[in-house]
Amino acid sequence: PIPCVPWQSQTSGQYQRRVHGRQGRVGGVVTNWSLVTKAHGTQSCMDPQVMESKIVISSCGHDGPFGATGVKRLAEVGLIEGVKGMKALDMNASEDAVVSGVREVVPGMIVTGMEVAELDGTPRMGPTFGAMIVSGQKAGDLANSIINDTEPSRRYTDFSFAPIKESTVAREMTRRYRKDLLKFADTDVVIVGGGPSGLTCAYELSKHPEVSVAVIEASVAPGGGAWVGGQLFSGMVVRKPGEKLFDELGIEYATKKNFVVVKHAGLFTSTIMSQLLRADNVKLFNATAVEDFIVKEGAVCGVVTNWAVVSRAHGTQSCMDPQVMQAKVVVSSCGHDGPFGATGVKRVAEVGLIDKVPGMKALDMNRSEDAVIRSTREIVPGMIVTGMEAVEADGGARMGPTFGAMIVSGQKAAELALKSVTK
Q1: Which of 27, 136, 296, 348 is the most exposed place for a label (fewest CB within 10 A)?
Q2: Can you tell me the distance from the alpha carbon of 153 to that of 132, in angstroms, rounded to the nearest whole number?
Q3: Residue 107: cis peptide before it, omega within 30 degrees of 0
Q4: pTM of the entire structure?
């Protein structure tokens, strides 16, 4: 956020007094697609958009190239003296200080979360999240009080968390993750790729508590392309009858003649994730890459795994050997083209289990979605291919920004996996 001229407010009281000072007040944000922002200087001028607002809540996190960008910008334009930067870790001191430091740092801008620690020079927090939750609550309450000219809640005055040892946190996380690694080292189904098709497959399998399912996703945030619609727009279009899963999940949509529209693709992704992650038989291993398959006698019998950041760093360090997960069935849902697309079928082609990967043809929405469902199958013994990876495997048409086939393909893959596991 950067300072801009505020609109002419017609409100009264405390808030009206706040906006009388036209200079030195944050009155909104300047926005652009994040990919465009990262590409500045590589193209001709790509001017931004703006959003005016009564309050900007800056929650830009800590350190790194994109951390604390709100308060850093205020310092650059002279609205605050500087940003002190975080001190070394002290879990107990940090969490209380973060909640205490949530405030309107300049007129029109509230700072919250770890950006508070960067601004005030308080200690790093580490892997606990209580202060993130409570500081967000306090920021919301403070914004509401400013907008409505009311007193903020006093519940955050002298707020303090229960004390904890840093080693206790480390042990809790390590113990639980180690338990998951031991449990899923030999599992029924491994799903490679947590995009819309992979997540739908996992959700369907979560209904069968006797079947253990490991979802392996290279990104920190699962969802693949299903956080946005086409060209980074937010709506999700699903052709009928793909919307039946929405009814089951309680996701609202606008109904058209032959399709439905969910107001934001992230609503689908977050809802289905919240459902499958509650299941005891499903474990998401995010930030984890599949580097290879276990293949025995022409059948896929599991996956070779590593931390995603390690996979990307091969060749920059000494040897960093992987781990393995054995599985009765591997569902490959690695998406289409690009450096990380269709990696499952590309690998089985490299080792000679299939002849080749034809790759996608040009876009034909109607042909493609039906073809995706037909192409969802056990492509080699022990490995089911689903979603857009099935299109890559068969040389089908590109689909474009519709998601019905991703959903139904995932459902079909789950059905095939279930039959294979239980036969």
Answers
A1: 296
A2: 18
A3: no
A4: 0.90
